[in-house]
Amino acid sequence: MKNEKGERHQKEESMMKRTSVCAVVLSVLLPAAVFAAEGIRPGLWEITSTMDVPGMPMKMPPTTVKHCYRLDDVKDQKKVISRDKDCAVTDLKSSGNKVAWKMKCTGKNPGTFSGETVFSGDSYESTMKMEPEGGKGSSMNMKVTGKRVGNCP
Question: What is this structure's pTM?
Fold first, then answer.
């Protein structure tokens, strides 16, 4: 019984670490993908991510980061979207104020990501799903909101 509890705790701790790493990776990658739509301006953006991992005993708190996108970042879509050497966008479709995308990642957190982003002026809402490769870990759902908060410092 004691060993079983230890193994379960170790498994939950491993899942938390993996989820945290994925949250950081996604916080960097998703904002890059949103610039594929027309009308997104360079500037300082505040991006908040909320993750849901089915079967996880406790809910992770939202993560908020600020990122400055310069004019050069917005102009070069390939440079912006594929900043992580372990991830590649495999499909990107824009229609009006919506962008749908798929991405494949290798390396420490291999998996497939898919999502949709809807724009409204200087803000956006996005939903995505991550499926880990080879059944390692749990699938994750993420909601991301972004808003332009001003010019870059």
Answer: 0.69
